[in-house]
TrEMBL record:
Species the sequence originates in: Polaribacter ponticola
InterPro entries given in the database record: MmRce1-like, Rce1/LyrA-like_dom
Entry keyword set: Membrane, Transmembrane, Transmembrane helix
Protein name: Type II CAAX endopeptidase family protein
Domain CAAX prenyl protease 2/Lysostaphin resistance protein A-like: 148-237
TM annotation in the entry: 12-33, 39-61, 82-105, 117-138, 168-185, 197-218, 255-276
Length: 284
């Protein structure tokens, strides 16, 4: 009994050591993003703070880097980690279009989107074709590019953090605890750049905790951090770069749209509850 308590205490010490290091490292980039400029350099640096904190923590506790779940895992979970975030993003925007919180974009705006992406010739000829090509390129090449930064987060959050939490908490506890920490880690950006801070913080916490249930499920099932890397990258690309470009904002309904919107919070919450129940049923 005493040995079990000692191990639990050791695990919690490791968890809080990791969180302390993440906080110190992240505060530097939070300061730069808020007080200097929200450039990709600072944002990319911030996203790699959990990975750096993990490496430092492993060094302090004398555990090898190879102890992390670097294996690729089952292709089934890799495919699902692409499909699920794309699906909940699409459902979110279908509901937005159907309920007229936003409207499906028109040909002229598609052409403008094409010019931004360098598809000028195709876009001026056929808006439908440019939309298809843009979605394919963003859904593949941009996801690969985005994975370079989400890898930094996921080495920390899903590669190390949740597996430490699993030693002392249930699946539900791991998902909620890691989700709250992950969401809180973002809060300076929401507070500083948000327009309706209370609403956006509320929806953001719902989204992140819901995503935490899904990503924890796939990470534990696959025993691989790559499912989380891909899931995170796909979610960012579809909800930030693809679906908003296909949507015209309707005046007065802006709070329903985007990654901090009410609709996205509702949809991800439903998905989160499904995966929570699925994990409990499977005794994960």
């Amino acid at each position: 009994m005493q040995e079990i308590l000692t191990e639990r205490k050791k695990t919690w010490n490791t968890i809080f050591l990791f969180l302390a290091i993440v906080t110190v490292l992240s505060s530097l980039f939070h300061y730069a993003i808020v007080n200097l400029y929200p450039s990709r350099i600072y944002i990319g640096g911030l996203m790699w703070c959990p990975a750096i904190a993990t490496l430092i923590t492993l060094k302090i506790i004398k555990r090898p880097i190879s102890s992390l779940n670097w294996n690729w895992g089952n292709w089934k979970y890799i495919r699902l980690s692409y499909f699920i975030p794309a699906l909940y993003g699409l459902i979110t925007y279908i509901l937005i279009w159907f309920l007229v919180f936003g409207s499906l974009t028109n040909g002229e705006l598609i052409i403008d989107w094409g010019k931004e992406l360098g598809l000028i010739g195709i876009g001026t000829l056929n808006p439908t074709l440019i939309a298809i090509i843009a979605i394919i390129l963003l859904g593949t090449i941009e996801v690969i590019r985005a994975s370079a930064t989400t890898l930094g987060e996921e080495i920390g959050w899903r590669g190390f953090f949740i597996f430490e939490l699993r030693k002392v908490l249930s699946f539900t506890g791991v998902s909620i605890f890691s989700g709250v920490i992950w969401a809180t880690w973002h809060w300076p950006l929401i507070v500083y750049y948000g327009e309706n801070v209370i609403l956006e913080l509320t929806t953001f916490y719902v989204v992140i905790i819901s995503m935490s249930f899904i990503m924890t499920y796939y990470t534990f099932k696959s025993k691989s951090l790559w499912t989380a890397v891909i899931f995170h990258a796909v979610s960012n690309v579809y909800i930030q770069k693809i679906l908003p470009e296909l949507t015209i904002k309707n005046k007065g309904t802006e709070h329903w749209l985007g990654e901090n919107g009410i609709m996205f919070a509702i949809v991800t919450c439903v998905f989160g509850i499904y995966f929570w129940r699925k994990a409990i049923k499977e005794k994960l």
